[in-house]
Task: structure prediction
Amino acid sequence: MTNAYAAAYLDSGALPVLPNGHFIDGQFQPPINGQMMDSLDPALGRPFAAFAAGDADDVERAVASATRGFAVWRKSTPGERHGVLSRMAALVRRDAALLAMVDSLDSGKALGEAEGDVGATARLFDYYAGIALTIEGTQIPLGQDLISMTFREPVGVTAHVIPWNYPTGTFARSIAACLAAGCSAVVKPAETTPFTALIMAQLLVEAGLPAGVVNVVTGTGVAAGGPLTEHPAIRHVTFTGSVTTGARVAQVAARNIASVTLELGGKSPLIALSDCDAMAVANGALWGIFSNAGQVCSAGSRLIIARPRHDEVVSQLVALTEALSVGHGLRGCDINAINSAAQLDRIAAHVDGARARGRTILTGGATGADDARDTGWFYRPTLIDDLPGDDACVTQEIFGPVLSIQIVDSDEAALAAANATEFGLMAGIYSRDITRALAMARDLDSGQVTINDYWAGGISVPFGGRKKSGYGREKGHDGISAFLSTKAVTIRLTPPPGA
Ligand code: NAD
Result:
């Protein structure tokens, strides 16, 4: 079905009505300092709208609003939480075309990817609507004289710092769980993708969420994100972004003894064992790395392949890669824009470095789109072959459409190579022998493992990292834990000893 918003923008540059200002106390409010920033269309490399450049004063106002919001929402019944989250799922589905178009325009991602993320967003609200009905404590037997029970209570006012690669889905996975638990929130979206968080905060109020429970402050990481994550009223921070910023966020939150969930980067391996299905690997590797132009924390950015299967798999992969179109996300191209000029430069520097080191670039290795109208930030899908384990393209996250290929001679060597980076987010295994694959899954040091389908999973599967990929889990039942605090209440049923 055609997206009318996308068609209007491509035809004449016409935009839907976009939110204006921060979202605080249930309404849009201008920034106190009066400053605005441009949001850019990455496929054209030029501004399309402005948004509020918030700072500590706006954060103060938003945290005060969230504190009032928490006083109301913590007392809501499971049924009330269920109702708001279910209605929100329906509203996301009602406004799916708008959300997908704005997400695609703001981030650069392909419209189909954005539609997929909006679909997952609606499912996340549905899922946590169900979870809201199931939060229960326990009763602990202590003999005849005492009885003890646990209450699972919301932790309080929470902060959510969102990256630019999945702005809609990342907002949803953290906010849906937060609201199901009875917490309130201040959200800081990435400065290159501010709009869908603002739209969804307003939708939550339309769904019946009391004003002040979810607030959004836009602006840069330093000016708005910093004051938010170090605010003493914040009891939990969910941060999704880079390792460097995540470490800083954990440090400032520690000053307030606030808990933190860190969803950080990755260098995830897709391991093709000697008995793999070659075509399944080629297709899995293709979309494992090239979805969202490789700007995915859990992208399968390394193909670790058994030597006897290398030529067959890699020749298919080269053919599939060279058939991909590169262009404006709203026009439905396979490889969409890179989110910013700075990110494009980082990707190009990685590949240029590999070239200078004499590595084999099988295809790609250049900037630019297929269509001269797309003058923004594009990088051609790139395959780099036969890399040693210590190459920078194997050890460092590139966050772009670049697949690093490593060749190995045994399952043990594949496992060692897979675990050899400082990250531990995701791993995929391709094998026709499930016991062989399961043995490897057990020994992989990563938060998730998929077998014979790199992107297998869903919103009910817990997601998170090990090592420098972070800690804590989002999605699934585990995703609610960060927002709940256990209180033990113990009662004496008989007179105390000696009374
Ligand atoms: P980033 O760390 O630069 O920015 C992420 C967010 O943090 C943005 O909203 C930014 O404004 C904010 N921020 C920046 N400085 C801050 C500060 N001092 N205090 C508080 N907030 C601050 O990350 P990025 O480069 O925009 O995103 C890409 C990275 O995110 C990649 O490394 C990727 O792997 C990671 N990521 C991880 C996941 C996951 O779920 N594990 C998902 C998406 C992206």
